[in-house]
Amino acid sequence: MKPNVPTPTNICSYVHGEFVTPANQHTLPIINPATEAQVSRLHEADAAEVDLAVQAARASFDSGVWSRQSTDRRQATLLRVRDLIFKHAEELATLECLNTGIPYMQLKKLHIPGAGVQFQFHSEAASQLKGELHQQRSGYQLQVSREPAGVAALISPWNGPINLSCTKIAAALAYGNSCVLKPSEYTPLAFKKLMEIFQEAGIPDGVVNMVNGRGVVTGAALVEHPGVDLVSFTGGGNSGKIVNSIAAKSLKRTTMELGGKSANIILESADLEVALDGALASIFTGNGQQCLAGSRILVQKSIAREFISKFVARAQAIRIGDPFDPATELGPLAYRAHMDKVLDYVKVARDEGAVLHCGGSRAPGFEKGLYLEPIVVEANSNAMRICQEEVFGPFATFLEFDTLEEAIAIANDSEFGLVSYLWSND
Ligand code: NAD
Questions:
Q1: The whole model's pTM is what?
Q2: 8 A C-beta contact, residue 168 and residue 247
Q3: Which uninterrupted H or E stretch holds 299?
Q4: What is the pLDDT of residues 263-297, one digit of tens each?
Q5: H or E stretch covering 231
Q6: Does the N terminus or the C terminus of the chain have fewer Cβ atoms within 10 A?
Q7: Which residue numbers are catalytic?
Q8: Ligand 1 pocket test target in 168, 184, 296 with most atoms within 8 Å of CB
């Protein structure tokens, strides 16, 4: 079932266009969540190796080899990156599937093409940049022009490793920045291939660099580094607060893309079959590990019983299995501690008095692998932890409401922002 793609034996840093022979012997296993077997290993970059990567980025930025290249030449290179991502989509999707457990079909059709499109989108957006001229005050002429920021530290999560990292890399490069990427320590397997693509596309050495390792070691060293000008972070809110506070010490600019507990509001006027499809896809795509998941499903009381019972029946019919199987709809969770965290929320739900409609344990029929059955719970108050905390798994929480105003109030009664969904005929 799995396409015949060689698996890299190790993943190390990529600095100034070369894969670094690691000085630090600290390694972490790279696990296939479908089998729980080790498939490769990661060499963790320490502060000294992070320093090399930042220095390479700095030198490339200051040299102007990319930062002062014309926008149209940069655009041509970025479009080559896009084309090479499309060309190597099978290899990228295979490595990503092997390491994340996200169904191969979702990776091949959505994540990897999406990563390629980022390079087109951002290079086109950058080609339309405009400046401003302010002449209101006599004797003064004020000109505003957009310049690259410098060296960008790009820190990405494990739930869409290539796609979410490419969003950041494409945005940084299109405007002339150099960067150092730090992917999640859980899912670095496809990044060697991605770096090779940058090389092949003709991105000058030192413009894209990569360091790998845990957030508290490699990530923290990167954010602290005085050679970094801005930090773009995607991950959990708690890590985001830490990253922001480290960055603030040296007044680095930050961009934070954090978690969610987004409300999916279903009104009685909605086409219920369409809303049902939407609600299921919204919470179970990507094995339920999506920042934009509609994880709090708010249903109008008049249709709640019918909607929830249909949702539960459909959830129980979801095909769980090998993520390389094209029929699979729900693969394994990304890593063991995460699966345990999701299961802990079943206990939280029970202790809070929520109704468990289905799921709640490891999926039967799998000797190995981090497979869970889809979990559907029904809360009786939005104050419950299962309505307020991000579970980040195949875990749907239902809540009833009477009026649209009440639904909106419940949707907004959350410490998260991010996404909103609403189904109605209007
Ligand atoms: P995480 O916060 O644990 O880790 C994210 C990244 O930050 C990883 O690369 C990690 O190594 C690094 N990191 C962690 N602590 C760090 C520190 N102290 N210093 C520097 N780097 C550090 O998040 P995760 O578990 O990998 O990802 C899941 C979270 O990401 C969820 O909350 C999800 O909602 C969120 N997410 C948000 C978006 C969005 O666009 N808003 C997209 C995808 C995922």
A1: 0.96
A2: no
A3: strand 296-300
A4: 999 999 999 999 999 999 999 999 999 999 999 99
A5: strand 230-234
A6: C
A7: 257, 291
A8: 184
